[in-house]
Description:
CATH topology: Jelly Rolls
Distance between the termini: 50 Å
Order of helices and strands: HEHEEHHEEHEEEEEEEEEEEEH
Structural class: alpha+beta
Helix content: 25-40%
Strand order of the largest sheet: 1-14-7-16-4-3-2
Amino acid sequence: MEMQFKEDGFIVIKDFFDKELIEEIKTAIVSFDKWDIMRDKDVVFEGDEANRDFKYIQNINYYVAKCHKVLTNKLFDKVAELLDEEIYFVNMEIHNKVPQKGTFTPAHQDNFYFQLSPPSSLTAYIPLEMHSAKVNGGLKFLKGTNKLGTLNHKSSTVKAFSSLLELDNPEDYEEYGTDIGAGDIVFHHADTVHYADDNKSEHHRRSLSLRFNGVSAKIDPKIRDQYKKNYKVNRERELEETN
């Protein structure tokens, strides 16, 4: 399994969690209504003011305490095995593509956002319901792109994604579309190129996204400088659209 992760840049493990646990967490998240306590910078919405839903929420485990239940010894042991060193938990988000209007996710490498060298980091993606690349905008990966290193990204106009990657030869890499559900998990390396279509279905696509780092990973100033430039451009465009 570790070899497959190193070769492809990701692995899918079915039935990693108990389905009842995931359903319990999903119910707690769906019923969350304390938006007044949430920091503005922790949430991004889609839709207009009268008919909006969240696109993602950072630090969701601090707002919905039940989310901490996925932070098991089993999960930490698997991450340490895949990164092949001591690791630590960084943060947890919930990502959502709302029915019919959930926007696409541009191609990117997480490490351009994480800005680490070496890029000893991964994301554990935990679907709370159906997560299908064919139906509701599930993740797609390009196999083996984790071996490319962290590539320079361009500024993006996509809300909540300040940077995107345009590979010169994406056809050289096999595309893998996820088809997973409650209880399953996907681990992908921070340099693995991934993206997702918009959600034109009647189904939500809610998933927890957990980031872990290896202890060897440090901030890379060069990546950080370029990321900051892209972030500034993205936010200035958002302000222009708002005004």
